[in-house]
Write a structure and sequence with these properties.
With 181 residues, this protein is an alpha+beta fold. Helix content is 18%, strand content 30%. It contains 4 helices and 9 strands. Strands 1, 2, 3, 4, 5, 6, 7, 8 and 9 form a 9-stranded mixed β-sheet that branches. A hairpin with a 2-residue loop joins strand 5 and strand 6. The two termini are 32 Å apart.
Amino acid sequence: MLPEKKLYYIMLNKPKGYIATAKDERGRSTVTELVADIDARLYPVGRLDYLSEGLLFLTNDGDFANLMMHPSHGVSKLYRVTVRPRAEESQVIALSKGVQLDDGAVTQPAVINVVVDEPGRTVLEMTIKEGKNRQIRRMCEAVGLEVVRLRRSAVGAVKLGMLQPGQYRSLAKSELVALRA
């Protein structure tokens, strides 16, 4: 009988300039390098592109990864997005209703809150429940906005909090319970 493997559930504040993969064929820095001191083969759960930052889970539990990523489970993801130029009301409304992306796919409705609205830029909080490739950036492009900064600040009930870029911690039992609920 094989010994039971220890399961890891890690929350990382992914800095810009790292790719959310275990290995990169182009030699770029990967998020697994940031957790190299953990003696297990961990995999990122979902994606955050090279230029994006914020909350990313890493685990060696495939069932947990699937639960977090599969759209049928409806796990919400909260992003703080800085766009330019200033977002018009019509653009915010379009984002909230769902937009057609460059590949023809239509996004599900999103919850949008305007946090900062000033000439030349707008800071939005966007909550989505799916995770298409570069979805937030592509949604903004579809309505004529350029993403200047993109940070995931929460997944489900788990918030990034004061965790600094490049730092990580284990998820608490209560956080795992909340995510699985």
